[in-house]
Amino acid sequence: MSQPDPTGRREHREGQDFLVIERRFTAPIDAVWAAVTEPGRLSRWIGTWTGDPASGSVDFRMLYEGEGTAVEVFTIHECEAPRRLSVTSKAPYEGDQPVDWHVTLDLTEADGVTTLRFGQSVPEAAMAESVGPGWEFYLDRLVAAESGDDPAALDFDDYFPSQSEHYRSEFS
Fold first, then answer.
1. Residue (of 122, 116, 165, 148) closest to 3 by Cα position
2. What are phi and psi of 145, to 5 degrees?
3. Looking at residue 125, which CATH number applies to its domain?
4. At 48, is the secondary structure helix, strand, or coil?
5. What is the total count of domains within the chain?
6. Are 161 and 154 in contact (CB under 8 A)?
7. What values do phi and psi take at 142, rounded to 5?
8. Is 94 helix (H, G, I), strand (E, B) or coil?
9. What would the pLDDT profile of 72-118 be if each residue is shown by its tens digit?
10. Helices in the chain by DSSP H: which ranges?
């Protein structure tokens, strides 16, 4: 596969920098919502969760990060189906240093096209050079899964490190 162009950008919200990436789907908003919230649908492109969302948190495990990936607890701040999900996790980043990640998913639908606007806090600018390509990869896996293509056909090496410079400059 050729190296995809990076699409993410920096946006300042709630007093911090966020990585923002959009993807569009020729699908109803409910179908895209299901793809980003239902464990079976999530498992096709990123991971899965267990637990009871009504409790205010779920356990999430990335499935495509290699063996021994730790379970992360995601605290649910907003869940307004099928339009908005806002969660926070405390997860290790490079070594065992825990980092608070705030993630938002906002969906809109118009004329048969649903737009997913993904956002993640970036506590330190240097993190963007790996976090950006990572989310480009996973969101393209989501597009592949929802369009009937094989997400496994995507290769992270096509995203990283080739997209790192874009994110370094976007967040500097």
1. 165
2. -60, -40
3. 3.30.530.20
4. strand
5. 1
6. no
7. -60, -45
8. coil
9. 999 999 999 999 999 999 876 666 678 899 999 999 999 999 999 99
10. 29-37, 39-42, 128-147, 164-170
